[in-house]
Automatic annotation (TrEMBL):
Biased composition (Basic and acidic residues): 146-155
Pfam families given in the database record: RPC5, RPC5_C
Residues of the DNA-directed RNA polymerase III subunit RPC5 C-terminal domain: 444-684
Keyword Transcription (UniProt): yes
Species the sequence originates in: Leptosomus discolor (Madagascar cuckoo roller)
Protein name per UniProt: DNA-directed RNA polymerase III subunit RPC5
Record-level GO cellular component terms: RNA polymerase III complex
Annotated region described as Disordered, given as residue ranges: 146-169
Alphabetical list of InterPro entries matching this protein: RNA_pol_III_Rpc5, RPC5_C
GO BP term, pick one: tRNA transcription by RNA polymerase III
């Protein structure tokens, strides 16, 4: 009741649906105009449209007498485009750039939710829009200027070589006969960018007549924006039950295939993706990302997704390599396709890529020359395989791009065992096809490995380090006692200063840095997909190579800063979800794929000027620990910094506060009486 009193109804307005301009009304979005081209004095010289493509081209006059217009620049542009001669084909007949062309592009693929509204005498009349077009300046006159320049250069070169014209009269002609076009080649040609551009250019322009704002014809057409009849029969769309009205406001997100915008293959719309079946979602994600940890995949699929169903689907389109999922070769190279570099069929490409994936199950490093020597593929194809799942390191080779996912291996041993059996089968096929030698089958640094991979836990490493410290301490103590006995036996040396004898004492504690140099070779390499590499464990825990720290920190800081400038308050769970979406949009091999831990992400949030707000949530809340961690941008540099800080202090004392309490607290702390709109802006 208190909220209703604070927000009373001021006026009720009748809404009418106008249908006279249905499927005829377009909204044009003009760019910001320069001072020499104002809304009042613009003259539309010509207008034309391609109805099928919904493409419009407008030609507008520029006020050359405006004091803000640079006349010398306009003359120079006209001279570059048309040259010194003036004829009917000239773009600028006045030898001055006195007009500008604007071309349109569709601003939205689905405009059924948009309408133009006119308010008159207490009535609101709505007309649905048929299209929204954004007008941008066209610079085709620059292409014309370049063509003129090339023609002049060709003419000059032709004048210099006029003495050789007699010799050039006789030329040898080579006759070639084109082969019949196959169905596959025809499909590629039809889907090419050049063919689509040619089809669009074939549609003829329809010239339009432009009427000004104050023209009588414009005034007549403007009357169609009002509903012609106010009876109930004309507005049956507005007489709906509450459930039907809600369905009209938020229709199901089902779009026809031809209404979907054409996007590049590496760009995904998460809204469209989540309308597909789970198996198709996973296939599209893996095909675009190529390498992904299971935790990142679950976060991209959204909350509530069954992990068992995801595990069942992911094994159909990906293989497990070092605890991470790598998309299968036959998904990237379907049947009846070929290499864009060498024309090799897809079957051969799949075998070569499987060999690279299998090598990464044996070791974190792969040498490109070795892969090329075994697979006999061209260097471009081998490079594509490696770029899908690894990063090039100078003087070392190609390293697998993601750290070993030890958490997934521990949680799902049955999946790991099943994938190990699949890799054993793939290895047997590769041995027959490539006649692999013994050095290809055994991982590097074999002398430093036992017959079976050793997985040493953190507690075992601590115990080994403590034992070594005790051993070193005992040896040093014996040496000191020996030296002390020798000093007592010699009277002359009894007076010597024993301060130069330094005893290396290494206290035994849990905080002592571990010296595991003796055990470095204990778990090097990876056997059959099981992790045993020391460096990859460091990468998993957030320790990056020295040369990458600054670059990764800069990328991470840029992401955190831009995210909090858009959304001032975020939980750790939401921030991690946005970060995973950001990772999915990055190209393979990006620096942020080197491993970002939760601690690194939280530290970067605090370093960018944000603070953690300790909101006292109720004990019986069902939120996860990451959802209980709330971070907020403390200073954004705007006029509402002080109000925002007061508001965050209020929520640090109680997680639920009434609006009038917030209003009073803001007025007291800031020393000014804020109105309702300002309080709403701070709350938003």
């Amino acid at each position: 009741m208190a909220n209703e009193e604070d927000d009373p109804i001021i006026q009720e307005i009748d809404v009418f649906l106008a249908r006279s301009l249905l499927e005829k009304l377009y909204l044009f979005q003009y760019p910001i105009r320069p001072a020499s081209m104002t809304y009042d004095d613009v003259t539309h010289l010509s207008a034309k449209i391609k109805p099928k493509q919904q493409k419009v081209e407008l030609e507008m006059a520029i006020d050359t007498l405006n004091p803000n217009y640079c006349r010398s620049k306009g003359e120079q542009i006209a001279l570059n485009v048309d040259g010194t001669c003036t004829d009917e084909t000239s773009t600028y007949s006045s030898k001055l750039m006195d007009k500008q062309t604007f071309c349109s592009s569709q601003a939205a693929s689905n405009v059924s939710r948009y309408a133009a509204a006119v308010y008159k005498k207490g009535e609101l009349h709505l007309t649905p829009l048929h299209g929204i077009l954004q007008l941008r300046p066209s610079f085709t006159y620059l292409d014309k200027a370049d063509a003129k320049h090339r023609e002049r250069e060709a003419a000059n070169e032709g004048g210099d070589s006029s003495q050789d014209e007699a010799e050039d009269d006789v030329k040898q002609i080579t006759v070639r006969f084109s082969r019949p076009e196959t169905e596959q080649a025809r499909q590629r040609r039809v889907q090419s960018y050049e063919f689509l551009q040619k089809r669009q250019a074939e549609e003829h322009w329809v010239h339009l007549h432009y009427y000004g704002l104050k023209d009588s014809r414009s005034e007549h057409e403007r009357q169609y924006l009002f509903s012609q009849g106010h009876g109930l029969a004309e507005n049956t769309e507005l007489i709906k039950s509450p459930s039907e009205y809600l369905m009209m406001l938020m229709p199901p997100s089902v779009e026809e295939e031809n209404d979907k915008p054409v996007a590049p293959s590496n760009v995904l719309s998460m809204a469209q993706l989540r309308t597909l079946p789970l198996a198709d979602q996973i296939k599209i994600l893996m095909k675009n990302v190529k390498v992904m940890p299971f935790a990142n995949l679950m976060s991209l699929l959204g909350s509530g997704t069954d992990s068992t169903a995801v595990l069942r689907c992911i094994q159909q389109v990906a293989m497990l390599v070092q605890g991470n999922w790598v998309v299968k070769s036959d998904v990237l190279y379907p049947k009846d396709t070929s290499s864009p570099h060498s024309g090799v069929p897809a079957e051969v490409l799949c075998r070569g890529r499987d060999f690279v994936m299998w090598k990464f199950t044996q070791d974190r490093w792969v040498v490109r020359k070795e892969v090329a020597a075994v697979t006999k593929l061209c260097p471009e194809d081998v490079k594509d395989f490696l770029e899908h799942m690894s990063v090039a390191r100078i003087n070392k080779g190609w390293e697998f791009m993601l750290p070993y996912d030890e958490d997934f291996v521990k949680k799902h041993p049955d999946i790991v065992q099943r994938q190990h059996m699949l890799w054993m089968g793939i290895q047997a096929k590769l041995e027959k096809v490539y006649n692999l030698l013994k050095e290809h089958l055994t991982p590097k640094k074999q002398e430093a490995q036992s017959a079976h991979p050793l997985l040493v836990s953190g507690e075992q490493r601590v115990n080994m380090a403590k034992a070594k410290v005790k051993q070193n301490y005992g040896q040093l103590e014996k040496e000191f006692q020996k030296q002390k006995a020798e000093m007592k036996s010699n009277d002359t040396s009894a007076k010597m200063d024993v301060s130069n004898i330094r005893i290396k004492e290494e206290p035994v504690s849990d905080e002592e840095p571990m010296d595991t140099s003796a055990y470095e070779g204990m778990n090097n390499g990876i056997i059959n997909g099981l992790h045993a590499e020391e460096d990859s464990t460091d990468s998993l825990n957030g320790h990056l190579p020295g040369g990458c720290i600054d670059r990764v920190a800069q990328e991470l800081k840029a992401f955190v800063s831009s995210t909090f400038k858009k959304q001032f308050v975020l939980t750790l769970s939401e921030l991690k979800r946005l970060f995973n979406l950001h990772l999915a949009s990055l190209p393979p091999g990006h620096t942020l794929f080197s491993g970002i831990s939760d601690k690194m992400l939280q530290d970067m949030v605090l370093d960018t000027g944000c603070k953690q707000i300790l909101v006292p949530f109720p004990p019986q809340t069902a939120a996860s620990p990451d959802e209980l961690k709330v971070y907020a941008l403390w200073e954004a540099g705007d006029t509402y910094d002080q109000h925002r800080q007061v508001l965050l202090e209020i929520f640090s004392k109680n997680y639920r506060v009434r609006r009038n309490v917030i209003h009073n607290q803001l007025s007291q702390e800031c020393g000014e009486d804020l109105n309702k709109q300002e309080v709403d802006r701070v709350l938003k």
